[in-house]
Q: What sequence folds into this?
């Protein structure tokens, strides 16, 4: 495991989204960090000082970094949650990219104000798009071990899959059935593995809604 920085501060809104995987990775790796959660009003006063003027942002010993996957990979590297083998690392990134594809497919519906149109769009995703993408992840995950996505131990690939399945299972995506992931046995085995991690349990008790 690489030596972590002496000070890490992760800044983001107080919500569950892609950046939750970063918080979980830091927690699982037992890396101390300052979890700064800001309001939209606070962010408006900070935005122009940040890389790419977007969140999340990580302050590592006074230097600011942005981009969710870059931050996640950094935590994976210092927390021994990223495979060192190049092919295993490539497989990890492939799964993370597949999860991002699903999130980006759903994201436009979040900003639809017309309630019926939102439900119609999400129903189409749930019937046509999401099953194809979830099956692709199912096929890629669990080849080395039933309990883990890539290798015989926890990686950031497991964490992003867990976060994705939690999003669906929580039922917050109105119009997308909360049981949409139930038929994917590999993904659910990984979800159960991460959910039983003692540090994840404690984190969920403190932060999940």
A:
């Amino acid at each position: 495991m690489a030596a972590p920085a002496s000070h890490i501060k992760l800044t983001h809104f107080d919500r569950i989204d892609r950046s939750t995987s970063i918080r979980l990775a830091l927690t699982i790796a037992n890396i101390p960090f300052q979890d700064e959660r800001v309001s939209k009003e606070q962010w408006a006063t900070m935005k122009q000082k940040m890389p790419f003027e977007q969140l999340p942002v990580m302050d590592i010993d006074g230097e600011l970094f942005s981009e969710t996957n870059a931050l996640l990979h950094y935590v994976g590297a210092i927390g021994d949650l990223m495979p060192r083998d190049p092919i295993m690392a490539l497989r990890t990134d492939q799964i993370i990219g597949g999860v991002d594809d699903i999130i980006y497919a759903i994201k436009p519906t979040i900003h639809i104000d017309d309630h019926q149109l939102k439900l119609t769009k999400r129903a189409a995703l749930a019937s046509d798009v999401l099953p194809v993408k979830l099956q692709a992840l199912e096929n890629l995950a669990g080849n080395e071990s039933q309990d883990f996505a890539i290798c015989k131990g926890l990686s950031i690939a497991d964490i992003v899959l867990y976060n994705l399945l939690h999003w669906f299972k929580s039922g917050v995506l109105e119009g997308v059935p909360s049981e949409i992931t139930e038929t994917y046995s590999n993904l659910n085995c990984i979800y159960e593995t991460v959910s039983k991690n003692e540090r994840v349990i404690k984190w969920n008790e403190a932060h999940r809604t």
